[in-house]
Fold each of these.
Amino acid sequence: MTSGLAALEARLADELAFLQLPAPRWTPALEHEGQPVADVAIVGAGMTGLALAAALVQRGVSVVAYDEAPAGLEGPWATTARMETLRSPKQLAGPALGIPSLTFRAWFEAQFGRAEWDALDKIPRLQWMDYLRWYREVLALPVRNGHRVTDVRPRGDGLVELAVEADGRSATSAWARRVVVATGRAGLGGPALPAFAEALPRTRWAHSSDDNDYAALAGLRVGVVGAGASAMDSAATSLEAGAAQVHLLVRRADLPRINKGKGAGNPGFVAGYAQLPDAWKWRIRHYISTQQVPPPRNSTQRVSRHANAHFHLGVSIVGVEERHGALQVGTSAGPIELDFLIFATGFKVDWRQRPMLRHIAPSIGVWKDRYAPLPGSEDDELAESPDLGAAFEFQPRAGANCPGLDRVHCLSYPATLSLGVITGDIPAISEGALQLADRLAGILYAEDIAYHYARMEAYDEPEILGDEWIAEPLPPPSAAR
Ligand SMILES: Cc1cc2nc3c(=O)[nH]c(=O)nc-3n(C[C@H](O)[C@H](O)[C@H](O)COP(=O)(O)OP(=O)(O)OC[C@H]3O[C@@H](n4cnc5c(N)ncnc54)[C@H](O)[C@@H]3O)c2cc1C
């Protein structure tokens, strides 16, 4: 087995060498207050942060990625996710950045062979995390785990100051010229919860992304609100943990069946979306979100195979209160008594849930500041999306005074309205990472143009030595005829 991976790693080293990657560092090494200044600091070393770090390293840019999670436990895959397999088809190139030996398939086949690959249906969730761990290690990416970024303060002098708590110790300052927020699906906020949830005792409910103790649901009557992939994963996990009953409470009269986002995917959509007029961006994203993404078939069957799983469609919750030692849930179809509720209700932009951004959040322009959707296509989630510039940078809202705000860039899910599907899902994460890395490299170069010009002037490596020819005077006119 190991020899298979060792052979792959040798092939990868060759591919990188053939492509002359990584480029040597070409940016000036800066210091501030005796500390190195990173060209780019990335907050988050999940799949997106890793892909971006790899793309920046390839471009000869100095980078550091901070992640508060312990090494190998970044992102949802081995922590809060509960699906058996990924939704994504196995053959997607994911964060491989165009390098064949960096794909999941190469990694899988190196260990288990082509026949196993052919037999594989979908990628097991934990195996995907194993692949991401290998990706980080084989590329020796500069990730600092156990490092939580607690404050991002752009300044007017070309630097961004980060407050970083390392391994629980009190925060110290770190410096970067550019910062990328790669904090994931809930990257600029957190769970989207119905108002009544907050009024319930915390022991009675969880959000699907919480680190919930499912074993404690054994013997209980559990309600799951929602009908997406996480609803199925939460319901199935509750059932497998021994819940007495699981009731899926679904507002829609039917489960969505078609994944319109998948149908929209093609190289033009990936490359061209960011240049579309606002009205088209809104129309596309609003359509995809109102159509909703169906839960995967295998995840739905994982629930329905249990006799004590109950799908209630066309049922919306009108109120909940704790009474008689249980939750009395009022619904549009009548009351139901439950012991525990799981809200599989997705995420929203909510700056209060991201204290790291508290200094810049009031200055960040969002779509509702400047775009008025057509009547009937209003959409709160889209309205709160950050209004990003061409380099994925936050842009100031009218009247804001936050020098250096444009030094903070966003490559996480809420950027999707501005940038398209390159912001964190497996199908186009390489494109997102490569595009942003190119923009950042270009910006860093342009900012230092005087330095690079001076380096060009000072460059003195001869290509010819002067001994390759002998200079002669012109021949006299008669001889030339
Ligand atoms: C349950 C689930 C299943 C999914 N399944 C699929 C799928 O099958 N196919 C697909 O294409 N997409 C899927 N996605 C969507 C997407 O691919 C994942 O959300 C993926 O994890 C995105 O990677 P990311 O790096 O952007 O974010 P994450 O993996 O969430 O990484 C963000 C990182 O930021 C760190 N962080 C956050 N705040 C700080 C801070 N202040 N300081 C330091 N570190 C911080 C976190 O610790 C985390 O490790 C799924 C998402 C979820 C939630």
Amino acid sequence: MQSALAPAGDQSAAIERVWDLMLWICVPMYVLVLLALGLAFWRRRPGGYTVEGDRRIAVGLTAFVVLIAGLLTVLTASSYVADRRLHAPVTDPVNVRITAKQWWWQVEYLDADPSKQFTTANELHLPVDRPARIELRTSDVIHSLWIPVLNGKEDLIPGHDNTIVMTPRRTGAYRGQCAEFCGLQHAKMALEVQVDSAGAFDAWKAHQLASAPTPSTPTALAGMHDFTATACAMCHTIAGTDAGGITGPNLTHLASRRTLAAGALPLNRGTLAAWIADPQAHKPGTNMPVVALQPRQLANIVDYLMTLQ
Ligand SMILES: [Cu+2]
């Protein structure tokens, strides 16, 4: 899920080729240097050697220098070629904007047609065999997006827009992680990555574009009213309801996600209730406050949120 040595995209494969080449050049070189050192100790003479005194040393040293220069040139060239691949122009990309926040990821799918734009959190869905062009922003400190199976790290810097391109070649569920220390909960700042077939991606996108349905059970309905009438709605958006806060993650399709609080917890009824009741216990320092809720209100809100498929 999160290994740079198991690439699932063009860019990560280019990086992995450089790594392979470095490994297969540097390991034999290391062994060769140690062997030469060992030989020098074994054949040492009391008076020492001089290059003038022994032609073989001059020849050996020259050969070594030429070999090292040649191999360094190969490594430099391969690094240059990989770098060109990482920044090659792409056509017809999926346009995404990821905004890092302490300590979660806001993911916006961009489109020239505003009615086709939507926002989600802590999950990135991409279609296979199509490049994704991802704008990187931060709303607070410096973070770094790292999805090792798709590409290398790229920083998200205040006041500076960065871009990264990823072209997935293998479907599957992967994981990304913030790779720049960004505060107390830096470690709990994960990003679920799902690479789907084009059809499955389009279906997911169409579903994400839909507003949240009005719940049918009495408790979930009561939960919807509790959610929109309390402080919850001041930070979270649920499309199709009065909840329109933008400080916290968009929850329109919360229940369709695998995890909660940027990968801090698996998502189910129990963890969701525990998280709302006491966020600081699970992610100390998080900006999610404790909202004073009656036990019945909490149960209703959990009922409601779990309907947000
Ligand atoms: Cu971080």
